[in-house]
Amino acid sequence: MEDYVELIADLIEHAGEARQTDIAQRLGVTQPTVAKMLKRLAEENLITQRPYRGVFLTDEGHRLAMATRRRHQVVEAVLCRLGVDADTARNDAEGIEHHVSEKTLEAFERFLKT
Fold it and tell me: How many domains does the chain have?
């Protein structure tokens, strides 16, 4: 779910809208797969959908997207600081961000400030 709300936020920020077809293309999944997840996100009050208008984040969805983006950025920055190349750091951060605790994230942020 976090990947979806983060992607929706990115699409809205960069393209002005998030459409089901764009989400499917960016994630490399089928539109029916996206439709199922969007239904779940709507049930969790993370998004709203308007016919022919795309997908929009609720306030709760926006908070989750920003928290996910922050975790990703911090983890990626730590990996780069450790000497991991940018592409590898970006890809690895995508997996690590979902498992890192808030306590570890705070330690990463302290590390980055030194």
Answer: 2
